[in-house]
Amino acid sequence: MLFTVLPHSELAASEPPSPSPSPPSGPPPSVVSRWVLLALSVVLILSSLAIAVSAVVVSRRHARQVMPGIVLTGVGGHGAVPLGAVSLDELPKRIHELGERFLDQRVRLLIGQDKTSARLRELGMRVDEAAMLRDCQSLGHSGEPLADLTSYLRGLRSGYRLQFAVSLDVSRSHQFLIELKDEVDRVAVDARLDLEKHTIAPERSGYLLRVYDSLVSLEYAARALSSGQPLSELRLAVAESLPQVRKESLTKLDVSTVLAAWETRYSTAAIDSDRTYNLKVGADKLNGYVLQPGQVFSFNAAVGDRTEKEGYRVAPVISGGELIDGLAGGMCQIASTLHAAAFFSGLEIVRSTPHSRPSTYIPMGLDSTVVYPSVDLKLKNPFDFPVVIHFVVHQGVVRVELLGKERPFKVAFEREVFVETPFATVTRPDPEMPVGQQIVDQDGYPGYRIKRRRYIFEGQWKTDPKDENRGNPDELIGKREWDVSYPATSQIIRVGTGSPKLPKKAPPPSHRIPPLPAWAKPLWVIQR
Predict the structure, then answer these.
(1) Please, which pLDDT band fits residue 56 given cuts at 50, 70 and 90?
(2) Which DSSP helix (H) or strand (E) runs through 483?
(3) Is the pLDDT of residue 35 over 80?
(4) Termini Cα distance of the chain
(5) Which of 239, 312, 364, 506 sits at 20 to 30 Å (Cα–Cα) from 109?
(6) pLDDT of 350-372, one tens digit each?
(7) HEC string for 21-68
(8) Quick check: 494 pLDDT over 80?
(9) What is the β-pairing status of strands 397-404 and 387-394?
(10) Is 505 exposed, middle or buried (0-12, 13-18, 19+ CB in 10 A)?
(11) Run of H or E residues at 147
């Protein structure tokens, strides 16, 4: 096989020619890219310029106004209150008005089963007006146009919802709770019969407001308000005491029999009207009271503290053997009348204390003084049925009836006088009275040491002639004795030591107690 080697030029000539490239149809790519970039740059510049111009316009337009879209929430009864477009000069006044309106909101206070209400300011709440003012002034007024424009657009789109920062003035809250405690604290009241209306008065729980626990509740309420939560009611902390007698237990109560009754008299003169008022207040607290079988009755617990809040007035009371003005004067007559009725009903006398001087309204030995909370009258129901107290104060008479089932016995009161002590006379100078005038400030009364006896029997009342006629009844069931003493009451005479030119003073009302007659000494008996 033979090969022929051709020259390079001939070899190239012998290959087919390649096609030549066609000319471009538009500008080269580099030129297009430059125009796009230029266009985008112009758009960006114009947009930035528009944004900058808008920011400047917005900043200048609202330079002296609150940013649009700002609302204040939580101002009760008014929903969201708009603050947008309010002049910055008027803003402090507007915020103060809204703060006052906020603090004027009333909150329902739940105290056990009871309800009351108070304004937020009364509870010790306070709002931070300065913080609210700073928030409103800063939004949209930062001094940076773009940031302020962003705030403006957000205000138009979704708005700004602000609420007051709320804190607690602890000292004011504590004072409010202390004053509220005086109003709401009360003892539990048992259900009782309303014997005049023939209905049953329902029981009522007792409450003691727990001040410091309630203060914590107010702290939490302030935090809730600061977070925008509504506060329509607030439960305060109390210690609750439950009544012993409930309404349902009285529906089948038997009050068909008067076990015993006792009456005392009181003055209906106008000068003694406050004392009469106290008698009615005290009697009302006991009328319809139910003493269950085996229950111990406490006068102080049933009546409670004798305060002005409970309706009592100032009237004469016995203190240290002297008549002086004191709050709730007359309550000892209520206690003494009840004590006498209890004595003849057969109730057990658990505790009774005589007065420091005998009283005009009840026989010596049947009286019983009470002083809250230290000196009490306590009675116990020994029967197997309830006993109901019926109190009436009307037209000069205090009457107590103890109602229940028929009792199978009789009761006698016997008083024996052992010692009678004469009273002393004391003079007291009075420079406001003219020389020579004398006034009896207090009538004297002898002192006595006596023995009080109670006989419970079923037969006839008899005395023992061999034992100085002391009681010796037939079919005696029980007998009890008490040693009772009454110190002598000094007679107090006020003697004038002043100028003879002074006008004479009128003597005070007399509270003279007649001395024991001879026939009532040494033994005296009452049977019921």
Answers:
(1) low
(2) strand 476-486
(3) no
(4) 171
(5) 312
(6) 999 999 888 889 999 999 999 99
(7) CCCCCCCCHHHHHHHHHHHHHHHHHHHHHHHHHHHHHHHHHCCCECCC
(8) yes
(9) antiparallel
(10) middle
(11) helix 145-157
